[in-house]
TrEMBL record:
Sequence ranges assigned to domain Sulfatase N-terminal in this UniProt record: 2-294
Annotated source species: Paeniglutamicibacter kerguelensis
Alphabetized UniProt keyword annotations: Hydrolase, Metal-binding
Thylakoid listed as a keyword: no
The name this protein goes by in its record: Arylsulfatase A-like enzyme
Record keyword Repeat present: no
Amino acid sequence: MRNILLIHCHDLGRFVGAYGVETVSTPHLDTMAEESVLFEQAFSTAPHCSPARASLFTGNYPQSNGVLGLTHEPFDWDLNDPKTHLAHRLKTAGYQTELVGVHHESRVLADEVVAERLGFDRARTGGARDVVVERATEALRRMATENAPFYLQVGFTEPHRVPSERDRPGVMGFLADGVDPDAARGLTVPGHLVDDPGAREEIAELQGAVRHMDEGVGSILAALEALGLRDETLVVFTTDHGLALPRAKCTLYDAGLGVAMMIRNPAHPAWRSRRIAGIVSHVDVVPTLLDLTGLPVPDRLPGTSLRPAVESGEEARTHCFSQLSYHTYYDPKRSVRTPTHKLIVNFSNAPRAMDPTQSWVHRSLPADLNGPTIGTSPVRELYDLRTDPEELENLAEDPAQEDTLASLSAALLDWMRECEDPLLNTGTATKRHRDALQYLLGARHAPTPVQPELAIS
């Protein structure tokens, strides 16, 4: 069995130098990437915090693990079975287990209650970067003296938006304590945003927050090496979902679902300085770690170990699935992605993109904004990612795409059934909800079968 250090952060997407963002300063993550397997096309199962993390740490989709929304008050979503958490699986196998920093994958309770429920020997949640680094380093020193392997889960809040006295009225930016805007290398405005002074102001703050977080990661990795634990420890770095910018976080576009993900496995040369181009999902992380540590992988997990993809060149998966149900309001969406195409089905008439900025005054605007408002979402969206990586041209009504639509619709419906998705119930459905299901079933004028046992809650 091997030690595991899993480091995650908020709202990063793939905004890292190792993923080609040349203007952001992430030297520690870039160095880790050179020593690791970097997954170029990794995706979360949800574009917001709690559902994404619940999948990362249980290996199950939100519809199955129970976390369809945020886990703090007043939302209070929770895991159906806290014993499915990776920490509990590892503790049962003889690991020391500890949680430091962000906990948002199960109901937010007192630290000792969180620890007991999820399988941690100790939990110290919350804290800005320097507090997290101090606690993680102390945990490593303590765990290094024991005879059992350890699992240390470390979560950084940065680069999440936070209120600051330096914010202009109506704005919540990225200026946490110790964070200054960083435009020293220029600015990278994502292609799905309008490149204007407001966006550039916001991106400068974001780049400073990412640099701040990267320094924290570097401090923890340096402590691991100083303690002589580097060669005995699997290190995972990832984030929950995409950047907290318009048309990214809280959407099922790649900008909301694409995540940085790298795994450093010093014991095996095949895991050094590799880039995997195929699509992979956060639900693949738990089976991968269990496999790499020699522990059994439960058959019921929907993900797959990434070991064959890394060591034998096998394709990890043909489809990635994601969902949005509740964030600040109910806005049910489901998506399926292949290496070349994306289908999104919208089950409500909500605005086309939920606002993730927590600001009254918007500094960044979507590039495809037409008119004074963003408009409502269509029932279905289809994108050819080879020619339209920013997902700006909806091809769903193009007759030439019928075969692609049929294939993706079938895959999406099969996944929803496997997950026992509550959206399959039409007992309390709106017309839009029924239209979306009828589209997926390929029978627009036929009644959709009702599954009362999957009632929407």
